[in-house]
Design a protein that fits this description.
Elements (H helix, E strand, L loop, with lengths): L4 E6 L5 H11 L6 E7 L12 E5 L5 H6 L1 H4 L4 E5 L3 E3 L3 H8 L5 E5 L2 E2 L6 H10 L2 H4 L12 E3 L6 E5 H6 L11 H13 L2 E4 L5 E3 L6 H20 L1 H4 L2 H15 L8 H29 L2 H27 L20
Parallel strand pairs: 1-2, 1-4, 2-3, 6-10, 7-11
Antiparallel strand pairs: 4-9, 5-11, 6-9, 8-10
InterPro entries: Glyco_trans_2-like (IPR001173), Glycosyltransf_2 (IPR050834), Nucleotide-diphossugar_trans (IPR029044)
Keywords: Membrane, Transmembrane, Transmembrane helix
Protein name: Glycosyltransferase 2-like domain-containing protein
């Protein structure tokens, strides 16, 4: 018999994204699953199947909502999904088959840009899925190669219920970043591995460029900078420091010209290499989208993403006391961290 899966979706209230996701959740090619939608207040969503449940949690953050899986979920496997994402029909089939490997405590898969996304959202998706902009995490947004990972976002993350219970669930004092801490706890306390499976696909709506996208990037940068300080095992990696090193060199590098002509040539060599790499990525985007305006937005977006992430990584690295990153959209009343 197939193992039962409990899909956990934390929301403040019913959103249009969630309404769009429900039909996809109903069409999953899997016979043994339930969907737990955790809202602030008790709400009625008509037309839901019996295996869909609305659970009020009070006004708590996403981590606390997800931790209610320990009380209400009846599945052997927990599948964490954001309300602004929806799964491919074979999502559960692919993920559950991976757990035949008893050395796994978790499975994650790509959250790719929906095919019908708007122009500004599509630009954000191209930025996130670019190897130049995303660095060592761009595989989270494209169908990459199968591999083990030590950190994975909760927009598309499967965890064995028993292991989730063993580590005590998410640590609610971190947001964003609660998924980074969960993965660290899972790896350290279970001795197992987390697999990235490119076939475990969800479609994840993007922020629009430039301001909403860059606000999201700033929060990611702050959380990673903080985590590089307090959780070095899966956050103190060169790839996370590179944008900060780049902007420091970009703005302060000219000061070294006074000391040696070597620094002059080195500075413009690095800048030139960056421009070449950026144009190379832009050519890929244009070849795919055949849209010159989208390509121009992409170029600007990648550069601004590096600047914003690099600055806020340093801010998170040196900020005292500990950051409070929690945020909710006042206009839409929904979480804006994911």
């Amino acid at each position: 018999m197939k193992p039962k899966v409990s899909i956990i979706i934390p929301v403040r209230t019913i959103t249009n994204y969630l309404r769009d996701a429900i039909p996809h959740l109903k069409k999953l090619k899997y016979s043994n699953y339930e969907v737990l939608i955790i809202t602030d207040e008790e709400e009625i969503f008509r037309g839901l199947p019996k295996n869909f449940k609305m659970i009020p949690s009070g006004k708590v953050g996403p981590s606390d909502k997800r931790n209610l899986a320990l009380r209400y979920a009846s599945g052997k496997i927990l599948a964490f999904l954001d309300d602004d994402a929806y799964p491919r029909s074979d999502w559960l089939e692919k993920a559950t088959s991976d757990f035949s490997d008893k050395n796994l405590c978790g499975v994650g898969g790509p959250s790719i840009t929906p095919p019908n996304e708007g122009f500004l959202e599509k630009v954000s998706g191209e930025i996130l899925s670019s190897a130049l902009a995303g660095g060592g995490t761009y595989h989270r947004h494209v169908v990459g190669k199968r591999m083990y990972v030590d950190d994975y976002p909760s927009v598309n993350l499967f965890v064995l219920f028993s292991d989730f219970k063993k580590v005590g669930g998410f640590k609610s004092e971190f947001w964003p970043g609660e998924d980074t801490k969960l993965c660290l706890d899972l790896l350290e306390e279970t001795g197992k591995k987390i697999l990235y499976d490119p076939l475990v696909v969800v479609f994840h709506h993007r922020r629009t460029v430039f301001l909403p996208h860059l606000k999201q990037v700033s929060r990611y940068g702050m959380h990673r900078g903080q985590f590089a300080k307090i959780f070095p095992k899966n956050s103190r990696k060169l790839q996370y420091f590179v944008p900060s090193l780049f902007i420091l060199g970009l703005f302060f590098g000219p000061l070294t010209f006074f000391f040696s002509r070597f620094f002059f040539y080195f500075y413009f060599s690095v800048v030139g290499l960056y421009v070449i790499l950026l144009l190379n990525e832009a050519v890929k985007v244009f070849s795919k989208e055949k849209n010159i305006l989208l390509t121009f937005y992409f170029i600007m977006g990648v550069f601004l993403t590096h600047l914003v992430y690099g600055f806020y990584f340093l801010y998170g690295l040196f900020k005292k006391p500990k950051l409070n990153l929690k945020a909710v959209s006042k206009k839409e009343g929904k979480y804006i961290e994911g």
